[in-house]
Amino acid sequence: MDRNLDGKVQYQLRHKYYHTTAVVGDVLYCWGGNQEGLDKSHDSPTKRECTSVIDAFNLLSGAWSSQPTSGTPPLGIIGVSCTPISNNIYYFGGWCGHDGCFHNSLNCLDTCTLQWKELQPTGDNSVTKRAYGGMIAIGTGSGSEGEPQQLLVIGGQGTATQHHPQFKYDYGAAITNEQSIYNLFSGQWIVPFVSGQCFPPAEEFIIQKISYNKGIMHGGLVNDGSYCSTDSIYLFQLSHNTINWECLKPGSVPNDGLWPDARNRHASTIINGVSTSPTLVMIGGVDSDEQLVNECWLLETKQYSWIKVLMFIVCYCECELSMTGD
Ligand SMILES: [Zn+2]
Predict the structure, then answer these.
(1) Where would you tag: which of 221, 222, 300, 313 has the fewest CB atoms within 10 A of its CB?
(2) What pTM value is reported for the model?
(3) Which SUPFAM superfamilies would you find in this protein's record (predicted)?
(4) Residues around the ion ligand 1 (C-beta < 5 A)
């Protein structure tokens, strides 16, 4: 059990995976995921007990806390996608935890009130029920209108109820490159057109927004002839209802040759500097042999050159722990 310097016992985050994180203000919110003791039934009071709390990490104090929420949290708790806009965090899809029960619901958590609202229930509509994909807030045009009010959901694994001709559905729709846009003003899903070098069916990749209407995808498990981990970067831009894609592979951009090996289940964020282009930070994951990767890479999004960051891992031994009084 961790203790503060004043001796108070700190709340500690449980071990979990396939969870979500989003930063709003000075707080990182962590919700969902697979964890020990999780009730994986469709819906139950026990499951609601678990889904009705959210872990919050205060970036200023460095302390975790568990916060109660109210309203309607999603049932898809594993591999759900999330993204913040202003004080809200939006959650799409996810795997329920039992059988092939995937969701295509869209829920919103207001971080000021910690109240959940279901914007779209799970249903048989044009959007594939899925998990392990990605979601970002995105706009069209220059961005002079303020925060984008559209959510772009891409890729993932699940069950399709409707096949759109511009997308691929492999292994009985288990993996897809489907893309869906939800307009928060109209409350409607839009199925966009695609052009350029669209990514193949994929899951467990990273996705980040790099400008108002542009984003970047990296890595993941793809079906590109065979089911494997990839080292490719995909850039995309939304214009009206069309998403244009560009693929970057090792050797396709003039840089010093540094390029991270293929990986999936990694984590990422974007650093926005005042005088530099947005920089993708990519960390961890597993490689093509399912081995854990302990690497951190930076990718600036002007020339697309990679920098490998040296990481120093501090290991605490028994004697060091005993000196803290634990
Ligand atoms: Zn279910």
Answers:
(1) 313
(2) 0.91
(3) Kelch motif
(4) 42, 96, 101
Question: Smallest Cα–Cα separation from 188: which of 136, 119, 131, 129?
Answer: 119
**C-alpha of residue 79 to centroid of ligand 1, in Å:** 13
Which DSSP string corresponds to 184-216?
A: TTTTEEE--EEEESPPPSEES-EEEEEETTEEE
Identify whether the C-beta of residue 105 lies closer than 8 Å to the C-beta of residue 116.
Answer: no
Token code pair at residue 118:
């279901």
77 Cα to the center of ligand 1, angstroms: 10
Query: How far is ligand 1, taken at its centre, from the CA of residue 127, in Å?
Result: 17
Are residues 136 and 155 in contact, defined by beta-carbon separation less than 8 angstroms? no
Distance (Å) from CA 194 to ligand 1 centroid: 31
Task: For residue 312, report the distance from its CA to the centre of ligand 1, in Å.
Answer: 42
CA 148 – CA 173 distance, rounded (Å): 30
Inter-residue long-range contacts of 96-102, CB under 8 Å, 24+ positions, other chains counted: 96/40, 96/42, 97/34, 97/38, 97/39, 97/40, 97/41, 98/40, 98/41, 98/42, 100/159, 101/42, 102/76, 102/129, 102/130, 102/131, 102/157, 102/158, 102/159
Q: Are 181 and 175 in contact (CB under 8 A)?
A: no
